[in-house]
Structures are given as C-alpha cells and as structure tokens.
C-alpha cells in the first residue's frame, strides 16, 4: 500500500515528493500503522521495487494483500489521471463502517470506490467487498489489470470467474455490459464489449483501446458504447467445434443432455441446429448455450403438439430446477442489476420465434408453430446450422439500434 498513519494519526502518502534520504530519516523517527487494522506496518525503501508500506507476514488484516509493482504503479497512475481532471479523489481511504480500503475513492461527482485488481482473489472475497460497498448504497468500479487480458484469437478471450464478477453495466440502458482494464506499462485502457461466451471461460468480444491522456472519468461509466448487441460473425465456427468435440465433454450438464438426445436416437454431436444460438444475455449462463438450449428444446418444446401453447414462467421454473440440481450453472454478476439469467431464456425463446419454431401470443406466452430439427449426419447438421444462423442473424441485425 502507498499510505500509512503515524502514531499521532498523520497520514503519510508515498505519492508525495519524497527523497530517499527524507524517507529514511522519517522511518528512523516514526512508526507507521495501517489505517484499517491499526497494526504496525513496515516502510519498504528497496532499490529494486517501488517504495511502499507492507504488513508483517502473519498479519490478518483484510488490507494486507501483497501488491506487485505493476499494481502499485497502476494505482498511482489512476490517481494522477483522476486528479488531472480536477476530481476529488482519495488514495486508499479507510471506510470504518465496512473496514475496507479501496485503492481509490471518488467523492465527486458521485461517491465511487475504485478497485484496481491485478491478481486473482476468491469469489467469496470479491463478493464480500462488493456487497459491503453496496450496503452503503455506493457502487464500486472494478478495473482489471491489463495483465489479466488474455486474447486467444482475433475476437476470442479467456476470462476467469473473477474477471466475470467485474462485469458492469453502462449508465446508458440501451448499451451492453462491459469489462474495463488498465495497463500502467502501456498507459492505456482496454474495453471488452459485446461479450458472447461459448464456454465457462471463453468468450467472443469486441476489444478497443483508449490512451490514458485521451480518456476521461466518464469512460469508466461508458456512456458512449457501441449499439446494442452485435451478432457474432464467426458463430458458425463455434457450433462446428461443438459438434466435433462435444463427445469429449464430461460435465453433469453434457451427460444429462446426452441422455435426452439418446432418447430420440441421437448423439450429443447431433444436437438440434436451433440450439447453440447466441443470445443477448448469454453472459448470465455459465453452461454452454448448445447444452442448455438443447435441453430447453427437448424438455419444453419437442413434446408439445403443433398449436399447443405454453408460458415462459413454466420454462423458467424448469430451468430453476436444473440449477437446484446443480446440472446447470449461472454466473454471479453482482454489478448487473438491470437483467437476470431469465432474460437469456426469454431471448432464446424469441430467437425460436425468428426461426418460426414458435409464435409469441402474449407478453409471456408462446405457441408451437413447427417441429425442431434432429439431423442424422454431421453434414446435415452443419448445413442446418448455417441456415438457422443466417435467419437469426438477419433478424437480430435489423433490430440493432444506432
């Protein structure tokens, strides 16, 4: 950490202009204490690492997480960046009510703690810190370190559970959630938008960069994002990969859906082409879309007669039962308040309307219009995949709001 208190309560910040000699003299005559837990901390003035304060190794303080030079440099640069915009920003302030110290805290134009997270922390620790802020009715901004941005293809990225936890909504309700990164080495922000995951750890997304000098605090809330939901252009390739390698999956969800397909004399590789479609709220569901959507088709649509109606609430309750059995999983997204995993289910039902499998007869009611496809060969499946995606893509792209 970059701040500590003396015995008389004076706050010492290492971001101030200190000489090495002055700090050595200060260290000789003063003891330093953590503003959060009150325990003694050590001033580190080595030649190889940036100067900082550190707890002793056996410290139980919640603020005693080891910080790399990368993290400390990023924190300093973000502080300077916000100060340069004449914003009232504090460095590592202690919030007594929740016993937490955010990396930075904006007190204007709105109260906002800012956390710069470069290393992985447990889900429980992340959720506790975030909920503590929200209990004070303040919403934190988590900025991921640029070292966490893992690109695996032109528009493919690998995300950890913790990365997903930082997903945030822009202030503009018509825009999509996003992830925000900062690299102190490049002095550059990175933004991931239009996220459409195709596994628990991999997602398609749009990546854009913004130099620190060109960015403003408004970019943290992303009021100027691209139009809503861009249909992924290479989704057919994703479906082809699923068909080629689905037999290697050995998860509770894949085993369950495999048995359902076996009941209609099909293997998992021959899942219906109407399944595995990208949806606007797909980021909510951890289970791959070709799995849970195949389940929905076989469980809720296939058994119905043509012309038979059903309600969204019935489908949603069935999905909830799959969650309670721990067959399907959804993501914890504490910063997303304007949607829910049920939105992904509804959006998929609307995609089935685009394919004329269903017709919508009311706000939450549907009627079966035609039967789903059950391909007999991989070639047939891939041909039907292409047709289904072409129809849905055409419908969705025509609905994009600019």
UniProtKB/TrEMBL annotation:
Residue ranges occupied by any Competence protein CoiA-like N-terminal domain in the UniProt entry: 15-63
Competence protein CoiA nuclease-like domain span: 67-224
InterPro entries found in the cross-reference section: CoiA-like_N, CoiA_C, CoiA_nuc, Competence-induced_CoiA
Annotated ranges, domain Competence protein CoiA C-terminal: 233-381
Pfam family, one: CoiA_N
Protein name listed in UniProt: Competence protein CoiA
